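Give me the fold.
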Amino acid sequence: MTENVVKTEAEWKTLLTSEQFHIMREKGTERAFTGKYAKHHDHGVYRCAGCDQDLFYSKAKFESGTGWPSFTAPVAPENVLSLSDGRGGNIVARTEVLCSSCGAHLGHVFSDGPEPTGLRYCINSAALQFAAIVDDRTKLAQASAGKTEKAIFAGGCFWCMEAPFEKLPGVISVVSGYTGGIKKNPTYEDVSSGGTGHTEAIEITFDPDTISYEKLLNVFWMNIDPTVADRQFVDVGYQYRAAVFYLDDAQKRLAEVSREKLQKSGRFTQPIVTEIRQASVFYPAEEYHQDYYKKNPIRYKYYRNGSGRDQFLDSVWGKDSK
């Protein structure tokens, strides 16, 4: 679940098409069989067209015959809200479905769906934005063809660092793990003890034809406090330091130029102390740490709001840092 998005009606009108505004902000409904996702079957995730929050996976989509995209369940219960539409009299009451992040009207949910949930989330195509998910076979083919590159960043708790990169066009995968230390095949408990020299980090696999390393660096800086060493926000210790681990001389030069530009930008009164060092072996973390914010949306939101991270990012970068 992403952070709550609050905008004025005027702001929504500039961001949405007239059809999207009518449906998402005025609770309208598109005509059956006219939406672009009614007969859509690609593998991926359907996101809110207003705030980009993940709503429904394609594996939950089914053909209901109603003329609207239909799903058996959302990505996570916390990502949607279900409310009675308050109808009375001779009009049958329905249960409205809203995006929990921005409050956009999505459609309605009915109890006539297939197993395993028995539910039918009947959603307007105009309220959705589809993002393809590249399967493992395609990723391997891209890697073997030399079409991908990697970047390794550390910025405190690794599962909070995954989120800013995972949805970027051109990013193929983001893996949480450990690097920079001396212990082979460390566990989470090993690294948490602070005696391994490792730091929590993420390894990004990306398509350089779609997104540049410089762009990844910009996103990295926007999601850390580069003026502190051996900690990030409430996470304290060498294992939570911020660092750029370069994989070749080109990445080293780009990282150094990027850090210098940030220092000269005037955003920070204190010196930038984030390390730029040569990458060593990257050890993927345990499975339960991968995609942590998607598996634990409530805990992710609590961490972001309670750690001082959001307040710092907002004060330095503004809302775009999220």
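Residues 9-132 form a domain with the Metal Binding Protein, Guanine Nucleotide Exchange Factor; Chain A fold (CATH 2.170.150.20).
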